[in-house]
């Protein structure tokens, strides 16, 4: 990954994961540049197809393009930080993330936003007032 391109992606995201909004300075593992359409599916390495992502979200997303909406059982495309508004699809419930739409619910599941360890880390940061992810972020 080109260093300058990575920096552009990081700055555009305000240094936060574009999926779970985790702030990079508080992460144990270096954030990654996610191909929204994975390279395996022909997604290019260009700004429009890249998103800043924490290690965990990136790992869970892998080469996935879609997930299952648990409410309907339908196959739904995952949240796309370039095409979707975060606050239209997700809502904070304390330290947990809830999906507001089919896209949101499918993404919560595939990216495992509410893994117990992830919720625990968020709770700690919330107590310290460090989780800026509570405020809405535009697309
Ligand atoms: Zn994340």
Number of strands: 6
Order of helices and strands: HEEHEEHEEHH
- What does the largest sheet look like? 2 strands, antiparallel
- Give me the Rg, rounded: 14 Å
Strand order of the largest sheet: 1-2
Q: How is this structure best described in words?
A:
This protein is of the alpha+beta class and 139 residues long. The chain has one domain (3-132). Helices cover 30% and strands 16% of the residues. The protein has helices at residues 3-12, 55-61, 86-89, 102-110, 116-127, and strands spanning 32-35, 50-53, 66-68, 75-77, 90-93, 96-99. A two-stranded antiparallel sheet has the order 1-2. A two-stranded antiparallel sheet has the order 3-4. It is globular and about 35 Å long. The two termini are 23 Å apart. Bound molecules: zinc ion (ZN). Zinc ion binds at residues 17, 19-20, 22, 53-54, 56-57.
Give a short summary of the structure:
This protein is an alpha+beta fold. It is built from five helices and six strands. The strands form three sheets. A two-stranded antiparallel ribbon has the order 1-2.
